[in-house]
Amino acid sequence: MSTAVHVPLAEYMDTAYEPDCEYVDGVLEERHVGKNKHSRTQTLLIAWLAAREKLHGRKAMTEQRVQLAASRVRIPDVCLIDPDDDDEVTQKPPDLWIEILSPEDRWSRLQSRLDEVLRFGAPTVWIIDPYAREAWTATPSAGVRPVEDGILRCALLNLQLRLHEILPGP
Question: What top-level class would CATH report for the domain 32-165?
């Protein structure tokens, strides 16, 4: 049985991990990334969002560290943040937080993470599963809801994205 090694926050903030990992109460947590459909979905999504930055008025970022609390740093696959936010580690809730699922992801772990992100103040979270070709939207008021019509929406930024535009083929 292994035990978690506690890392001081300052050490985590000054260290580049490859791939980057999250910081939860002094423990480093691995993220599931890097497989083909995950990577391709992330690429298509960031291209779509970046091409529309002038319309929605936010910076599109990939794998940006976001400090949710004194001892918590999470990393969305993609997020939209204020264009004036130049912090190396974002301290404010992104206006759109996006998680792209990998085959190894488990809904129970994701649900805990979503709750944390919504409590932090992110108004909208998109969850995209490129393997099952499904998606969900989460908001503080409505919780997690499946995307049944194939269109991801972010009301705050007046965004509508057809899921088929960013999903790689079967």
Answer: alpha beta
**Quick one: which of 133, 137, 90 has its CA closest to 118?**
137
The model's pLDDT over 105-119, given as tens digits with 9 standing for 90+, comes to: 888 889 989 999 999
The whole-model pTM stands at: 0.91
Long-range contacts of 56-61 (CB under 8 A, 24+ apart): 56/80, 56/157, 56/158, 56/159, 57/83, 57/157, 58/82, 58/83, 58/95, 58/96, 58/157, 59/83, 59/85, 61/94
Q: Would you list the domain boundaries of the chain?
A: 32-165
Quick one: pLDDT at residue 1?
39
